[in-house]
Design brief:
Helix content: 25-40%
Radius of gyration: 11 Å
Number of strands: 4
Structural class: alpha+beta
CATH topology: Translation Initiation Factor IF3
Number of helices: 2
CATH architecture: 2-Layer Sandwich
Length: 79
């Protein structure tokens, strides 16, 4: 059974804080763990996928509604 996802609230934080907070949270997780990141900074829409690709994490899904973005990130091996 998979552990429940970790929820990270980065709403109201401006670039680069959503990515930096996600990075810190993912460093503390085991590979395969799931992080749900919520953000409101429009730059996060592009920054989070770029970060995931560079850091070896998998962006499983992202959604945008009512000014809020949610990112489903699967933790990869720590780099």
């Amino acid at each position: 059974m998979e552990a429940p996802p970790i929820l990270l609230n980065a709403r109201g934080l401006q670039c680069p804080l959503p990515v930096l907070r996600a990075r810190k949270a993912l460093l503390a997780l085991a590979p395969g763990a799931l992080l749900l990141l919520e953000a409101t900074d429009p730059a996060a829409w592009d920054d989070v996928p770029a970060f995931c690709g560079e850091a070896g994490h998998v962006l499983e899904a992202r959604d945008k509604a009512d000014g809020r973005m949610t990112f489903r990130i699967r933790c990869g091996a720590s780099i």
